[in-house]
Amino acid sequence: MMASTVDNTMKNETELPPRKRLRLNSISADNTLGLTCFISDNIPSVTGVIKSRLEDFIVCEVDKNNDIISFKDYNVPERVEHNTAVDEVPLLSEEIKISLKKVVDGELAHFDINAPEDKEERTYLHKGIKSYDKNLSSSTISEGNKRLVRVVLGNKNNSRYDKINPNEKFLHFTMMKWNLGTNDAILRLSTILKIHPKRFGYAGLKDKRGVTLQQVSCHMMDAGRLAGITKKFMDKVSGNSTRVLQDGNFILGDFEYRPEGLFLGDNNGNRFSVVIRNCNVVQEENCNIIHKSLSEKGFINYFGKQRFGNNYNTHTVGKYIISKNYKSAIDEILMPNQESQKLDVFTALKHFKDTKNAAESLALLKFKTGIEGLVLSSLARDPNNYKSAIKKLPRKQQTLYCHAFQSYLWNMIVSERISKLGCVVLPGDLIQKARDTPVTIVVDPCTGTSAGEVVLPLPGYDVNYPDNEMKQIYDDVLSRNGVTSETFTSAICKEFNMSGSYRNIIVIPKDVTLTLLPYSDPSDKLIETDLDRVMGVQFLPKSDGQLRALRLEFTLPKSAYATMLIREISMGSIG
User: Fold this and answer.
1) Using an 8 Å Cβ cutoff, are 531 and 245 in contact?
2) DSSP collapsed to 3 states, 399-468
3) 3-state SS, residue 36
4) Residue 438: is it exposed, middle or buried by C-beta count within 10 angstroms (0-12/13-18/19+)?
5) Of 401, 315, 57, 71, whose CA–CA distance to 206 is shortest?
6) At what angle do helices 314-322 and 395-421 cross, to 10 degrees?
7) Phi, psi of 556 (to 5 degrees)
């Protein structure tokens, strides 16, 4: 459905030019990353500005139950103390209970029980002893040919979590953050709590620039500690949500105890709310055209620019790593870029480029534990050992580089597919009816298969390729980038898990709405956030003004990029 809050008398009411089908994008960054095609035609090209304010870009995770994550409160739920009744443990006979009581009362120094042969039964016995009295400790020992369970007083294995209900081992909560990446938020939270970041789990990474809401889990954590962090923050900011959003931070709430934690991929997608300010689309008719195109044709499922780092070159680093050209990989990592790097980083990398003195360059960095610092530190110790410098990077970072190369190749391949063959379904195409279902081969394109079901594999060692004209396109794109399909069967590609996967060439967003918003000042707040509601800040939408903004709301499956939807309707002029 499409919503509009203003009439047709808006400023800049002009006839917007239609677009030619599959027009190529002239923006160099897009071309560099293979983002060259569009599939919508005869729709107005949107112009304007996104992310002018942080709340102009809101991302709400959609969980496995298709519920949109929101922030409601930071109340602490009651916990149910786990205390298994002795009568529930059949392995504890009356005779055993009597002897256990003697150990507790100090009448026996220890008590031995014949250990069951079955490991599961032994585990059950240990749990039964612990449930009888938390001060008892049991262990399995061997005496001669006998295996015994020895019980003593003094539970050296007891922990402060013994009474936690097995169904409450993980605390799930909503993290609402702004101007902060997911990993940075987790690291900051770990520092506050003085725990290891590995105790946290989450379904996916969320953008830094914007307001995002997602589910996070933490192993063996009390909700009161996290609620305290949010309460302290709320008391400090005193209801000024505008000032709050100026700095990167987060709040935590909606606490719930569950038996399992979260893992990457444990979500069904994301719900986006995007405001495009100073927008040229001012007619309801144009909104209807855009809505129809997105709802019926969708957009090309490109990997977005953020996949390729601030310098748009992570894929190039990955290409050099898998070809074992480590010097060139280092040159790319240490490439100075004044536009995308902090001043100290740019200064250090510029100095290295001019002098090749890694030690001096390292000294210019404020923080030496980042990617550039790790590489320069390694080169300072061993100037010509470029492989060692790469291996000093976290394995996750090396893997990210290699996977970025796969993403880049996929972008190039899908662009060639669309520019040469269009979006029609072809015999031999691969299709996937739904995520996590088998990939099958199209025999007859007229059997009701849609373009939205067609998938193309990311080049890898464990994928099948389409059996049609796409074979030649894959060969050509890979050849132009100095690799073949056999390259991905190498040991180094297996080391970085470059197995490949299947990705839809087209994504059709769900529940699309477009709303035209009037405003008068570029700094006007145009959208209410959950933070406003929690802080009790009254939001008054603008009812008039000479400027116009377009609010887009839509839901995308996981791994699809909202920036690529915006690119489609703006012909690449936004983002």
Assistant:
1) yes
2) HHHHHHHHHHHHHHHHHHHHHHHCCCCCCCCEECCCCCCCCEECCCCCCCCCHHHEEEECCCCCCCCCCC
3) coil
4) exposed
5) 57
6) 100
7) -120, 150
Token output for 199:
């105790």
Q: Which of 418, 332, 438, 437 is nearest to 375 (CA)?
A: 332
CA distances from 53 to 208, 276, 431, 523 (A): 13, 10, 40, 8
Query: Which two tokens mark 352?
Result: 């290295």
Helix (H, G, I), strand (E, B) or coil at 129: helix
Total residues belonging to the chain: 575
**pLDDT tens digits, 210-248:** 999 999 999 989 899 999 999 888 888 765 666 666 667
Distance between CA atoms of 486 and 494, rounded to whole angstroms?
Answer: 12
Place of tokens 């940075």: 184
Token pair 């590995």 is found at 198
Name the token pair of 263: 């893992």
- For β-strands 57-62 and 211-219, DSSP reports them as parallel
Lowest mean pLDDT among 121-135, 466-480, 539-553: 121-135
Instruction: Read off φ and ψ for residue 9, nearest 5 degrees.
Output: -100, 20
Distances (CA, A) of 366 to 180, 191, 372, 551: 20, 20, 11, 40
| Closest alpha carbon to 200 in 211, 208, 188, 210 | 188
d(CA 53, CA 39): 30
- Statement: residue 159 has pLDDT above 60: no
Structure tokens at 85: 């009744």
Q: Are 34 and 408 in contact (CB under 8 A)?
A: yes
So what's the pLDDT on residue 474?
A: 96
Per DSSP, 5 falls in state -
Hey, what are 554's tokens? 């839509």
Q: pLDDT per residue over 283-342, tens digit each?
A: 889 999 999 999 999 999 999 998 998 888 999 999 999 999 999 999 999 999 988 888
Select from 139, 131, 200, 125 the least CA-distant residue to 162: 131
Rounded to whole angstroms, how far apart are CA atoms 228 and 154?
A: 34
Structure tokens at 179: 């101007």
Residues 6+ apart with CB under 8 A from 387: 324, 326
Helix (H) or strand (E) holding 234: helix 223-237
**Amino acid (one-letter) located at 355:** T
Average the pLDDT over each of 335-344, 372-381, 473-482 and give the range with the smallest value: 335-344
Q: Residue 141: in which H helix or E strand, if any?
A: strand 136-143
